[in-house]
Design goal:
Elements: E1 3-5, E2 11-16, H1 22-34, E3 40-45, E4 56-60, H2 64-70, E5 75-79, H3 86-97, E6 100-102
Parallel strand pairs: 2-3, 2-4, 4-5
Antiparallel strand pairs: 1-6
Length: 104
């Protein structure tokens, strides 16, 4: 299980299938929520994760296996719903409170 201190998170990548659609929406919403923390949120296709600077990866459950294969040493947070997902809310809370973030 990988983990990272919230203070060390400066770049989040929302991994997607092809770089368009629902993941863009998630990335935009997350960027708005984290704006005051000055955390960059971008989206990138799962096959480009190795080349995309990140401290943490957020990915839909359907792509989680591919994301973990692409960046096995990174913290990978899995979500199920594109709107109102509890794991995304927990991530935002941990980033705001300064906790430790773990995948799994």
């Amino acid at each position: 299980m990988a983990s990272i201190s919230a203070a060390d998170v400066k770049n989040i990548v929302v991994a997607c299938e092809a770089g368009m659609g629902s993941s863009v929406m998630v990335a935009r919403q997350l960027a708005k929520q984290l704006k005051k923390l000055e955390i960059s949120v971008v989206h990138a296709p799962v096959h480009e994760l190795r080349e995309t600077p990140h401290d943490l990866v957020l990915v839909h459950r359907g792509l989680s296996h591919r994301a973990k294969q692409a960046v096995p040493d990174s913290v990978v947070i899995i979500f199920d719903m594109f709107l109102g997902d509890l794991n995304i809310a927990r991530l935002v809370g941990a980033l705001e409170s300064g906790g430790t973030i773990s995948d799994g």
